[in-house]
Amino acid sequence: MTDICFYELLEVDKSADKSTIKKAYRKMAMKYHPDKNPNNKEAEENFKAVNEAYQVLSDDDKKSIYDRYGKEGLEGHGQSRGGGFSGGFEDISSVFEEFFGGGSSRGRTRERKTYNYNLDTEIQVNLEFNEAIFGCKKNIDFKYKTACKSCKGTGAKGGKLSTCKTCQGQGQVHVRQGFMTFAQTCPHCQGTGQGVGAKCNDCKGTGYSEKQEKFEVNIPEGVNSGNRIRVGGKGNIAPNGSRGDLYISIKVNEDKHFVRHDDDIYLEVPVFFTQIALGTTMQIPGLKGKLELKIPAGTKDKEQFTFRNEGVKSVNGYGKGNFVVQIKIQYPTSVNSEQKELLENLQNSFGIQSKPHEDNFSSMFEKVKGWFS
Hints:
By secondary structure, the protein is α+β, with helices and mostly antiparallel strands. The protein has helices at residues 6-10, 18-32, 41-57, 60-69, 89-99, 129-134, 273-278, 337-349, 356-370; strands spanning 121-127, 136-147, 161-163, 172-177, 180-185, 194-196, 208-219, 228-231, 246-252, 259-261, 264-272, 280-285, 290-295, 304-307, 323-330.
């Protein structure tokens, strides 16, 4: 798993207080917990990463180091690279309390969820290259779920649920791995312990109807593909009227000339070979206007020149990236007789300097001869 910003992992702002960070951690830890995602390697890695993020952001000293120097700055300060969790028992135990319905898992029953869909929902929004860099306003048109009134979101006729036949109403099933037996959420009833007998006629057993909604959202400056924006209270609606959140997943279209890597922008600049020989200064397009590029004589092909802080503004508030120019030397594909004569005269004007191979290889010819004499 590639390193992801800790704030982005927990889906909080850099200015979030400890209470907000702790709440976000609980939510994400429950989302990726192995018991909820059996045999899911990606969820397992996400669970470890969320734990590591909370371990850092909940500690004032580690958070200060991370804000200044990033993850690399934490090495040597008690932070492992493996993402292991070493936070307080109170924090991790509270997650399990919520996971199993509050309090100790012994003698408690899990809260019954009567509807069969998630309150949080996600959509993808495509942005043009410039929209992602400079931010924009986007009209969002999406569908959300609201509980069927006839069955109160259960999907069962008259709202009457029966005991789940898979788990016999326990909400959990036991899976044996080797000599160990593990309990996990029942995949049939999603832990509710209840199942649908006769389907509701109005919703055909889905438990919900879909509605269309439109609104305008502000896309912050500097977002990139893979980022998510949370819009509170725009998700699916439960039978009791509570509403989840909408997550907007960002997909940014590529540009024909500019190439983005994180917050840095790369631009390839074609330069004719005579300009390389003489050196030149030229105007090139930057993100916000013209930039002056000075190319010294003798510059090599693919050599790079960096304009500091002329890249993309970090969406997490870490400053701005760089604008990197890479040179691409171009040569004529054909020459006419006049150009050929001029080039030959130029070649001859340099004398022996124009034939460096002769000086380098003269002694080698004699050495190779000696190998066969």
